[in-house]
Amino acid sequence: MKAFPFFLLLLAVLSLPGCFLKPHEETVHFDTANPLSLAPDIEWVAITEPYVGFHSMPDWSSAVSEYCRRGDVFQIEGKKLTETGKGQVWWYLFDAGWLPQSAVAVYSNRFKALTAASQLVK
Fold it and tell me: What per-residue confidence (pLDDT) applies to 18?
């Protein structure tokens, strides 16, 4: 019989602080600057070459319109598989033009590409 009051006292001591203590709220902050960062159907690249030119067409002989450097990150706008004398080459389209697969590393989201890019420029 003495165990019952002890059990009630123990139950009260353990449960009452939960009634008076405020829970610690954690907030998660999302970067909304680029809403497509985690879109499942959008791919991103990190530039792996020290210096590479954007071509106007998906072809090595086409004119170069702009340049980018190792560690830059871009969203892929399109891609095309082309035949060359040495085999097939994927070309990726960006706002500035086309880049070959040998100059980029493709990632499933922007954050992975940014993490890889930060390792490339070290």
Answer: 65
Beta-carbon contacts of 106 under 8 Å, excluding residues fewer than 6 positions away, are 43, 44, 45, 76, 92
Q: Tell me: the pLDDT tens digits for 48-59?
A: 999 999 999 999
pLDDT digits (tens, 9 = 90+) for 70-91: 999 999 999 999 998 889 999 9
Count CB neighbours of 109 within 10 A: 16
Question: What DSSP string runs through 62-120?
Answer: SPEEEEEETT-EEE--EEEEEEETTEEEEEEEETTEEEEGGGEEEESSHHHHHHHHHHH
The neighbouring-strand residues paired with 100 are 91
Share of the chain above pLDDT 70, in %: 92
Token pair recorded at residue 31: 């970067």
* 122 CB burial (10 A radius; 0-12, 13-18, 19+): exposed
